[in-house]
Amino acid sequence: MSRIGIIAIIIEGNKESVARVNTVLSDYSEIVHARMGVPNHEKNLNVISLVVEATNEQVGALTGRLGNIPDVTVKSMMTNKTY
């Protein structure tokens, strides 16, 4: 069963990490309902928030892949109720 959740992604630094994050997110586009990105060029920082509908396994796989990218921090929060 799937649940609704939020994934927060912070990318500090290099453009290569940004490109890798976008590639991973494209691989999981079927579970993403909404995406908002906020770049801060002065601080060389990017923040991305996602609204997802997915199983625990899908969220774990996505956040695991993102967390292995250098300069990337990722956190997730899911509803208790399944849909």
From TrEMBL:
This is Iron-only hydrogenase system regulator. It comes from the Bacteria. It holds the Pfam family TM1266-like. InterPro entries: Acetolactate_synth/TF_NikR_C (IPR027271), ACT-like_dom_sf (IPR045865), FeFe-hyd_TM1266 (IPR023860). Gene3D superfamilies: ACT-like. Chain A, domain 2 (3.30.70.1150).
